[in-house]
Inverse folding.
């Protein structure tokens, strides 16, 4: 496999992690790796939405995650410094960076934090999916400030195309909305319709509740009450108002207090 890899990777791609001035590469099945990265992103998003501050997966979690099979993702657990030349990474370099020479454990690091050279079809498929999600979010939460009406889906899509706005396949749609809106403001008049909410979360739910609020809204004012409850004034897109309230109601079993201040 090493000799073939020097000339042609065949159906495999390279996963690369540059760390501590050293480069580590492993041979990866693109379809299996793509599926695994989707699983990881979905798990991270689930944790963020639940208010879990420890949203990042650890290498140990990846190694033991039931939906991730590293044996299917990696052609082998040989770690290279330069895979195309067949030059293996030294034990000293692996020990210095990862504190192990175990190729399987290092594969977890590469899957989590490495740069993976996805195929063109994979990137385009994911780009189209993210684009649709972004347009849907914008169409539900943004308005034309000139007439206070939402822009049609097709108009937003055309504006994104004309602005040549970049869609990052590795970021969630929610993370990219603000940047996309800034880009298309030169094409069409548009702004996010914001509302302000006052929120009071009982003391026993403040840790997770704070995470949920911070994920969906901008916290403008906050105060801790003597009984341990958390009071805040937040600003968020109008279309996310009910999602935030529903999540807080589910978390607190209906004990959260909310009041619309400005719309």
């Amino acid at each position: 496999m090493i000799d073939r890899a020097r000339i042609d990777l065949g159906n495999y791609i390279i996963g690369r992690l540059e760390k501590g001035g050293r480069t580590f590469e492993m041979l990866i099945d693109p379809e299996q790796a793509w599926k695994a990265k989707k699983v990881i992103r979905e798990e991270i998003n689930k944790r963020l939405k639940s208010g879990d501050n420890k949203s990042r997966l650890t290498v140990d979690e990846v190694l033991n995650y039931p939906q991730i099979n590293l044996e299917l993702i990696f052609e082998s657990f040989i770690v290279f410094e330069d895979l195309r030349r067949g030059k293996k990474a030294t034990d000293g370099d692996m020990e210095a960076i990862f504190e192990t020479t175990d190729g399987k454990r290092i594969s977890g690091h590469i899957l989590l934090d490495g740069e993976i050279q996805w195929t063109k079809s994979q990137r385009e498929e994911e780009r189209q999916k993210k684009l649709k999600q972004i347009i849907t979010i914008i169409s539900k939460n943004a308005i034309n400030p000139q007439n206070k009406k939402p822009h049609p889906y097709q108009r937003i899509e055309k504006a994104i195309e004309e602005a040549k706005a970049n869609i990052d396949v590795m970021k969630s749609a929610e993370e990219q909305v603000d940047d996309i809106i800034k880009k298309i403001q030169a094409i069409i008049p548009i702004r996010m319709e914001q509302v302000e909410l006052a929120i009071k979360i009982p003391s026993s739910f403040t840790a997770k509740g704070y995470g949920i609020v911070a994920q969906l809204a901008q916290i403008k004012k906050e105060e801790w009450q003597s009984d341990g409850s958390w009071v805040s004034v937040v600003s968020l897109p109008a279309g996310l108002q009910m999602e935030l309230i529903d999540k807080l109601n589910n978390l607190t079993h209906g004990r959260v207090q909310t009041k619309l201040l400005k719309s």
Q: What stands out?
A: Confidence is low (pLDDT under 50) at residues 1-7.
